[in-house]
Amino acid sequence: MNLAVDEQHLSELAAELDAETFKTSLSCGNDHTPELKVVNRSSGRLSERIKVCDGHYMWSWNERIAPVTERALAARRVSNVLGSVGG
Asked: Which among 6, 33, 72, 85 would be 20 to 30 A from 51, CA to CA?
Protein backbone atom coordinates (compact mmCIF):
# COMPACT_ATOMS: atom_id res chain seq x y z
CA MET A 1 0.00 0.00 0.00
CA ASN A 2 1.38 3.36 -1.05
CA LEU A 3 -0.66 6.13 0.58
CA ALA A 4 0.73 8.85 -1.70
CA VAL A 5 -0.28 6.87 -4.80
CA ASP A 6 -3.73 6.17 -3.34
CA GLU A 7 -4.17 9.87 -2.60
CA GLN A 8 -3.16 10.70 -6.18
CA HIS A 9 -5.75 8.27 -7.55
CA LEU A 10 -8.44 9.87 -5.36
CA SER A 11 -7.40 13.37 -6.48
CA GLU A 12 -7.68 12.27 -10.10
CA LEU A 13 -11.15 10.83 -9.46
CA ALA A 14 -12.21 14.10 -7.81
CA ALA A 15 -11.06 16.01 -10.88
CA GLU A 16 -13.11 13.69 -13.10
CA LEU A 17 -16.37 14.41 -11.22
CA ASP A 18 -18.57 17.36 -12.21
CA ALA A 19 -17.65 20.19 -9.81
CA GLU A 20 -21.05 21.86 -10.30
CA THR A 21 -22.82 18.71 -9.08
CA PHE A 22 -20.38 17.42 -6.47
CA LYS A 23 -18.26 18.89 -3.72
CA THR A 24 -15.18 16.78 -3.05
CA SER A 25 -12.58 16.80 -0.31
CA LEU A 26 -9.61 14.60 0.49
CA SER A 27 -8.98 13.61 4.07
CA CYS A 28 -7.51 10.89 6.22
CA GLY A 29 -9.96 8.22 7.37
CA ASN A 30 -10.20 6.62 10.80
CA ASP A 31 -7.74 3.96 9.62
CA HIS A 32 -5.25 6.69 8.59
CA THR A 33 -5.67 6.03 4.86
CA PRO A 34 -6.69 8.68 2.34
CA GLU A 35 -10.34 8.96 1.44
CA LEU A 36 -12.36 11.13 -0.91
CA LYS A 37 -15.60 12.54 0.42
CA VAL A 38 -18.07 13.22 -2.38
CA VAL A 39 -21.22 15.24 -1.61
CA ASN A 40 -24.06 16.06 -3.97
CA ARG A 41 -24.41 19.86 -3.80
CA SER A 42 -28.21 19.65 -4.28
CA SER A 43 -28.72 17.14 -1.50
CA GLY A 44 -26.10 16.76 1.20
CA ARG A 45 -27.75 13.50 2.18
CA LEU A 46 -26.28 12.00 -0.99
CA SER A 47 -22.66 11.57 0.02
CA GLU A 48 -20.03 8.88 0.14
CA ARG A 49 -16.47 8.28 1.30
CA ILE A 50 -14.37 6.54 -1.34
CA LYS A 51 -11.06 4.80 -0.75
CA VAL A 52 -8.51 2.91 -2.81
CA CYS A 53 -7.74 -0.72 -2.02
CA ASP A 54 -5.85 -3.29 -4.07
CA GLY A 55 -5.89 -1.09 -7.18
CA HIS A 56 -9.63 -0.34 -7.06
CA TYR A 57 -11.80 2.58 -6.03
CA MET A 58 -14.01 1.29 -3.21
CA TRP A 59 -17.36 2.31 -1.73
CA SER A 60 -17.47 2.69 2.05
CA TRP A 61 -19.17 -0.71 2.30
CA ASN A 62 -16.08 -2.31 0.69
CA GLU A 63 -17.60 -2.96 -2.73
CA ARG A 64 -15.44 -2.21 -5.75
CA ILE A 65 -16.44 0.74 -7.92
CA ALA A 66 -13.84 0.29 -10.68
CA PRO A 67 -10.10 -0.25 -11.12
CA VAL A 68 -8.03 2.91 -10.61
CA THR A 69 -6.93 2.50 -14.24
CA GLU A 70 -10.55 3.16 -15.27
CA ARG A 71 -11.10 6.53 -13.62
CA ALA A 72 -13.80 7.68 -16.08
CA LEU A 73 -15.82 4.51 -15.38
CA ALA A 74 -15.48 5.10 -11.64
CA ALA A 75 -16.64 8.71 -12.03
CA ARG A 76 -19.70 7.60 -14.03
CA ARG A 77 -20.62 5.05 -11.38
CA VAL A 78 -20.21 7.54 -8.55
CA SER A 79 -22.26 10.08 -10.50
CA ASN A 80 -25.01 7.53 -11.13
CA VAL A 81 -25.27 6.68 -7.44
CA LEU A 82 -24.87 10.14 -5.94
CA GLY A 83 -26.18 12.31 -8.75
CA SER A 84 -29.84 11.36 -8.58
CA VAL A 85 -32.06 13.76 -6.70
CA GLY A 86 -35.75 12.92 -6.78
CA GLY A 87 -38.19 15.71 -7.37
From this structure: 85
